[in-house]
Amino acid sequence: SNPLLSVRDLHTTFDTDDGTVRAVDGVSFDVDAGETVCLVGESGSGKTVACESITKLIPTPPGEIAAGEVRFDGEDLTSLPDKQLTEYRGGRIGHVFQNPQGALDPVYTVGDQLVEAIRLHRDVPKSAARERAHSLLDRVGIGDVEDRIDDYPHQFSGGMKQRVVVAMALACDPDLLIADEPTTALDVTIQAQVLRLLDELQDERGMAMLFVTHDLGVVAEIADRVVVMYAGKVMETGDVYQVFENPSHPYTKALLECLPGRGRALETIGGTLPDPTDPPDGCRFHPRCPHAVPACEDGDQPAFEDVGGSHQASCVLYGADYDEPELAEANDD
Ligand code: SF4
């Protein structure tokens, strides 16, 4: 059957004074109904922009979806007019962002905001929407809902605010929840609670989740599948067990070597992300790659090679016509 979400050769660019930033540069991935896919990478890898491109949440201009397709349940969202897209946003596709503050309006109570979110997409009377708001707040663990439903966002702690945002995202029973670093702004203990909540909700509602994170510890906990991004491109993709057991792309290997130590992960790889207005030829990772060979420096990003099952890596080391000298010698013994 067709995937619920199919992103194909997506290119999202931003015009800046320094030139065109190709934030997402030919990215493809799928999310099946009911599954959790994690987009993982350093900040600047393009993972957030890829997510925001799905329902065109990027500011245009300076942003532009320059090419590619985003099919949701068969419909190409990139070609839909804004009015139709808004029916998906907060409807069949829910969003939870990093900063709960920005997702809530300070001048309305959380109950009123939930009622509005529900009625934006569903033709139900206020009383029914209020009942639903009540049960959603209860489900996300607000506690004492009767007392809290008419409170304003500033009356909630950061973790509780994020729970309210999760309730908003669930207002219309989405088929896909897009969660972009939803726990990063929270205290560590609260992070774990919100993560567990999302995992439970995903399970219990059978919705798919596209989860963006820089934290491989989080990936290990919740993902079915992983898409590793670097400098606007996908480096490796596969089942979470395959990728953790047998990381194949040197970038993924470097990321995993930074574990454990949740949160500090990626800074420990030497070097920095390339200039996004002028990325290197060949493999984007070659200036930082400990295994780079001359073939890595020219042409385009290497094609995806199968490294087992549905597990693929974009690296010349796995190409059919690449003969690694030492390996060849070792095999002669
Ligand atoms: Fe390293 Fe070359 Fe593979 Fe890129 S293609 S990850 S530079 S070995």
Automatic annotation (TrEMBL):
GO biological process, one term: peptide transport
Ranges where the ABC transporter domain occurs: 5-256
Listed EC numbers: 7.2.2.11
GO cellular component: plasma membrane
Classification via InterPro entries: AAA+_ATPase (IPR003593), ABC_Ni/Peptide_Import (IPR050388), ABC_transporter-like_ATP-bd (IPR003439), ABC_transporter-like_CS (IPR017871), Oligopep_ABC_C (IPR013563), P-loop_NTPase (IPR027417)
Residues annotated as signal peptide: none
Chief site of localization: membrane
Keyword tags: ATP-binding, Cell membrane, Ion transport, Membrane, Nucleotide-binding, Translocase, Transport
Record membrane topology: Peripheral membrane protein
Record field: catalytic activity: Ni(2+)(out) + ATP + H2O = Ni(2+)(in) + ADP + phosphate + H(+)
GO molecular function terms noted in the UniProt entry: ABC-type nickel transporter activity; ATP binding; ATP hydrolysis activity
Keyword match Disulfide bond: no
Classification via PANTHER family: NICKEL ABC TRANSPORTER, ATP-BINDING PROTEIN, OLIGOPEPTIDE TRANSPORT ATP-BINDING PROTEIN APPD
Assembly with partners or alone: The complex is composed of two ATP-binding proteins (NikD and NikE), two transmembrane proteins (NikB and NikC) and a solute-binding protein (NikA).
Protein name: Nickel import system ATP-binding protein NikD
Source organism: Halobacterium bonnevillei
